[in-house]
Amino acid sequence: MKKGLVLEGGGMRGLFSEGFLDVMLENGITVDGMIGVSSGALFGCNFKSHQIGRGLRYNIRFKDDPRYMGWGSFLRTGNIVNAEFAYHTMPMELDVFDIAAFEADPTAFYLVCTDIQTGQPVYRQIDQVEDSTLEWFRATSSMPIVSIPVEIEGVKYLDGGLVDCIPLQHFQKIGYERNIVILTQPKGYQKKPNKMVPFFRLFHHKYPKIAECMARRHEMYNAQLQYIEEQAQQGNILAIYPDHPLDIGRIELDEPKLRAIYQHGREKGLAMLDQVRQFLS
C-alpha cells in the first residue's frame, strides 16, 4: 500500500504545512510520494530535500528585499513574486536548494498546474531539479492577474489551485491509498463565491477558461472538503487542519506572523506525532 502526503496551497499559510513536515523529518517519518499545489509544492519540496526550516528562513531573510515580492515587483515585471529572483537566483545562489538531496530521496514528488487554454489540471512529477524544471514551481504558484502566465514547452500555465486545490483524488487514482492531507484552513471552513469573477473575465479575456475556473472554484473546493471528511471517516486519510484561521495574507511578509504560523504547524505536528506514526504503520 503506497503512502502519500497531499499539501494544499494558500500562500504564506503554507508555512503551517512546513512546520508540520519539519516535525515529521526530525522524527524520521517518511512516505512513498507527495503532491503539492502552489505554496504546498514550494514549501513541500523542502521535505524531500531534507532542509528543515528553509521556507521560513528565506522568507524572513528576503522579506524586505525589493527583488523578492510585492507591488514593486508587480509594477516592474508584471509578477507580484519576482520570477527570476524568487525561482532561480534565490534557490540556486542565495538560499541554495539541496538538489542532490532532493534527487537522492526516494519520495516521488508531484505538483499541480492549470493549463489556461483548456482550464484543466496538469500533474507534473519532478524528479530532477534544474533551471527548466524550476519553471514548474513558478507555474504552480502563479496567481491570476498578479502573475504573467508561465510558458513551458509551448503551453501556458497558472496556479494549480484554480482547478484542483487539494489533489487527493488524483493521488488516489495513481495508487496512493493511504494519505496524510495537510490543509491550511481550519476544519469547518467553506469557500465563498469569488466576487472578482467579472474582473477575471476582463483581465484574462484571451483565456476565458480562467474566469470559468474562478467562477466555480468555490464549488470545487467545498466538494473536495466534503470528500476529505468522508475519506477521513472511512480511515483512508489523516486530515490535518490548523486549529484556527491563519491570520496572514497570501504574500504577506510580517515576520512575527510568519514565525507564528510555522510554529503552529510544528506544535500540531508534535501533538499528532503518535497519531501520524500509527496511521502510517
What does this structure look like?
The chain has 281 residues and is an alpha/beta fold. It is built from 12 helices and 8 strands. The chain has helices at 14-26, 39-48, 54-61, 71-77, 83-94, 99-104, 131-140, 168-173, 197-203, 208-233, 255-271, 273-280, and strands at 2-7, 33-37, 108-115, 120-125, 150-152, 155-159, 176-182, 237-240. Strands 1, 2, 3, 4, 5, 6, 7 and 8 form an 8-stranded mixed beta sheet that branches. The chain is globular. The termini are close together.
Write the layout of secondary structure elements.
Layout: E1 2-7, H1 14-26, E2 33-37, H2 39-48, H3 54-61, H4 71-77, H5 83-94, H6 99-104, E3 108-115, E4 120-125, H7 131-140, E5 150-152, E6 155-159, H8 168-173, E7 176-182, H9 197-203, H10 208-233, E8 237-240, H11 255-271, H12 273-280
Parallel strand pairs: 1-2, 1-7, 2-3, 7-8
Antiparallel strand pairs: 3-4, 3-6, 5-6
Descriptive key words:
281 residues; globular; alpha/beta
- Please describe the biggest sheet, giving its number of strands, its sense, and whether it closes into a barrel: 8 strands, mixed
Beta strand %: 15-25%
Helix and strand run: EHEHHHHHEEHEEHEHHEHH
Q: Which oligomerization state do the chains in this entry correspond to?
A: single chain
Helix content: 40-55%
C-alpha end-to-end distance: 11 Å
